[in-house]
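Late entry, written up from scratch paper. The run itself happened at the end of the previous shift, but nothing got recorded in the book at the time, so transcribing now.
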Amino acid sequence: MPFSIRPSHRFPVQVTVLIFVLSMIAATPGFAAKDGRPFWTEKSSFIEGDDLFVVGVASNSKTVEEARKQAFENGKLELMNFAQVTSLEARGLVVETQMTFEEPQPNGTVTVYRLLRVPIEKLRAIQDNLRTQTVVQEHALEKAQRDLQGVQQSLARKLQLLDGQSRQTQETLDSVSKLQETLGLKTSKIEQKQREVEQLLQQLSDKVKRTEPAQSQPRVAGTKTMKSTANTAPLYQRLQETEAQLDAQEAQLRELAVRAKERLASENETAKAYQRKCKFIAKGMTRDEVIEILGESHQFGRYLGPYQNGFSTIYKFMDSKGQSHDVSVGFAFNALVESLVGCKGNEFHRF
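Output as recorded:
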């Protein structure tokens, strides 16, 4: 059977001679491998001195050249499986061919055995480097996981804070609405009490008119005058009680009106401040720059554009009439300002 020896200039001459001698011995009766093949064709890999040898086999190939190439690739696969290393050339490991054994087959094909060699020290250095890189990557992955957990926890805390502030804002708006409703009810009651007073005064006037003739007569019998006084006394008492109730309600109404005006005045100042500050917003600003001008807002919106996604930060306020308004700052996908709505004299849009 033909075989060839291809020593490399990097391969020690002593080892080359040793393998050649062993191959010759293996070719003699009693020392040959199965079917007269060299001894190394029966192995997948073995270590000799400071070198690792692996055997690549290509069976039933149509041509010798094709078989040699396939045997070399199969030998590299065997080496990578043995050493648990991928991309040998990328790691700087040179794989050298020590010898080949070609075996023609009865069906016209050829089987080639290719003996490959690599230095063990070089291979071990690559393995150590890979282990070091693996440890570094594991540490980096663990750090990234810890950082991600920290970000998630921070986000959860911010979401809780945002929920609390949203509830407080809603409670404030509900209080203003209830205050307006209460103000209307109080006004209706005052008007009703005023009508009752007018009716009482009219009744009192009618009563006085009816008693005037009796009072102009001589007071011969004082019983009639006493009776008139007795009949009018409860009316005065009712009038005084009604006046006291009206005074109390009017005082309460004034207090509520003052509170409502103060609340609306405060909201109006906020509205003026937003309208004054929002004129400094311009396209391309970052969210931090917007916060420095308008302050932090905890109300957000999200929208889908034809080319990209974005979000908006909303600043809500009320005017002096109690009507709700807002200034909306829109951000593109890169978190830069692209639109401004609700700012008088400085509105601009995405397109």
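The chain has five helices and nine strands.
(Scratch paper discarded after transcription.)
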